[in-house]
Write a structure and sequence with these properties.
nucleotide binding, about 25% strand, alpha/beta, Gfo/Idh/MocA family oxidoreductase, Dihydrodipicolinate Reductase, domain 2, eight-stranded mixed beta sheet, Rossmann fold, about 325 residues, binds nicotinamide-adenine-dinucleotide
């Protein structure tokens, strides 16, 4: 049986990536929608054959508890709304998959994790790269020390953001700027390539457009120390295109990806001609939804879970604190 999913928030990601991805999954189908826009409800009902009984708005959302056709709730709203809808999803007794960043703060993540634990349901975070084969191969090369001990990672992800009125530039809705939205991918790569947690960060922020970025960060570069002695140098930006990479420098060679975080066209490389990182393209969203569904069906814990989302928020909070205080900051404990 395929699991029924309810999409909450029918914005760009839901429309262009998630809805089409269901057709490419083995274990998932789009069962229900939650939207605040009646016109979108009409459009989606027709396009995806969704009955009236499976259409909710933000007020009627909790009635999803009575719908046996919904196994998983997928929260695809602006970051500040993730906490509310994950906790309401937990109270509805459903498994919940939540987009990245998991929330705006570490405390929000903690409350989400607690609510899902109390409900006895699984919480997954939409870190699509963790199920992408090039990234998984890089994790394996690091873990198996194919190039010797890992010493240094550099990573970056950014883009030139358009529309100045969008929620991504409002602190209340987005929690922060480039770091929360795309820097988190570079941070993730450092954490899963290192296979350990950063213990200390020091960061620097640059703002060239004080009006557009009045509320959120534009460009940040930061350095992270890991307990083993590995160091990472990372950047993120909303000001320009082009940064989309990570490199792992090891005792006996180097490997990495560039581009690393796009939906397709990913490329891996290594310093040794006999070691290649080449895989056919996969749909990141179909792959991660199937992985979550398999965990739910098997009753096995899914990773990346809420704890993984919390760990990123702890580093992000340390980065913002370092910018504020102008000095190195220890990463908080889970
Ligand atoms: P979007 O702006 O296109 O869609 C947001 C949706 O939320 C819209 O349907 C909007 O109507 C609704 N909404 C409800 N209340 C709102 C409010 N107060 N302000 C603004 N919108 C409101 O955003 P998106 O790009 O679809 O992103 C949604 C979530 O998905 C974010 O958390 C984002 O970080 C994440 N995302 C993840 C990926 C990925 O690759 N995993 C890619 C894009 C977005």
């Amino acid at each position: 049986k395929k699991l029924g999913w309810a999409l909450v928030g029918l914005g760009s990601l839901s429309t262009h990536q998630l809805a089409p991805a269901f057709a490419k999954t083995k274990h998932c189908r789009l069962s229900s929608i939650v939207t605040g826009t009646p016109a979108k409800a009409e459009e989606w009902k027709k396009k995806y054959s969704i009955p009236d009984s499976h259409v909710y708005n933000y007020e009627t959302f909790d009635k999803i508890a009575e719908n046996p056709d919904v196994d998983v709730i997928y929260v695809v709203l602006p970051n500040s709304m993730h906490e509310e809808f994950v906790i309401r999803g937990a109270k509805a007794g459903k498994h919940v998959f939540c987009e990245k960043p998991m929330a705006n703060t570490a405390d929000e993540c903690r409350r989400m994790i607690a609510a899902m634990k109390a409900a006895g349901k699984q919480l997954g975070v939409g870190y699509r790269c963790q199920y992408e084969p090039h990234h998984r191969e890089c994790m394996r090369l690091a873990r198996e020390k194919t190039f010797g001990d890992l010493k240094f990672i550099d990573a970056g992800f950014g883009f030139q953001i358009g529309d100045p009125t969008q929620w991504r530039l409002r602190k209340k809705l987005a929690g922060g700027g480039a770091l929360m939205d795309v820097g988190i991918y570079a941070l993730q790569a450092c954490r899963y390539i290192a296979g350990e947690e950063p213990v200390e960060v020091i960061a620097q922020e640059v703002k060239t457009d004080l009006q557009k970025f009045a509320e959120v960060d534009e460009t940040i570069s930061w350095s992270m120390k890991f307990a083993s002695g590995v160091v990472a140098s990372v950047m993120t930006t909303y000001a320009f295109n082009g940064a989309n990479y990570f490199t792992a420098t090891c005792q006996g060679g180097r490997f990495g990806m560039d581009p690393a975080y796009s939906y397709d066209g990913l490329k891996g490389w290594t310093s040794r001609p006999d070691v290649k990182i080449e895989f056919p393209a996969v749909d990141h969203f179909a792959t991660e939804m199937d992985a979550f569904a398999e965990a739910v069906i098997a009753g096995k814990p899914f990773a990346p879970s809420g704890e993984e989302g919390l760990k990123d928020l702890l580093v992000i909070e340390a980065i913002y604190q370092s910018i504020k205080e102008g000095k190195a900051v220890k990463v908080g404990a889970v």
